[in-house]
Design goal:
It is built from two helices and eight strands. With 99 residues, the protein is α/β, with parallel strands linked by helices.
Length: 99
């Protein structure tokens, strides 16, 4: 799943690829619902915002299963902010060759 900020909204591409999750720069808006820019440059993206960005895929039981597996994996790696019900997402900048 690849996240973008477009027109002040969180959008996603490749929503059926849940074996990876990152955002693509620039992410310069702090006014995106469900997204917080952390001081370390990562994003804390709420689980609900991820589901909304997935659109119709989020209604598919197979997608939901894979999404829950992704969240479990992220939690096992320490990539979740439990207090905010959010997943930590790194930002890749294609202008500089990736992350």
């Amino acid at each position: 799943m690849i996240l973008y900020v477009r027109d002040g909204l969180l959008a996603a591409d490749e929503v059926d690829v849940l074996s990876r999750l990152h955002a693509v720069a620039p992410v310069d808006s702090e006014d995106v619902a469900g997204v917080q820019i952390r001081p370390d440059g990562q994003l804390a993206v709420s689980v609900e915002a991820l589901r909304l960005a997935a659109g119709a895929h989020a209604q598919d039981p197979a997608w939901q299963h894979d999404f829950e597996a992704m969240l479990s994996y992220a939690a096992s790696r320490g990539w979740c902010d439990d207090a905010a019900a959010a997943v930590l997402v790194h930002v890749e900048d294609p202008r500089y060759g990736g992350a």
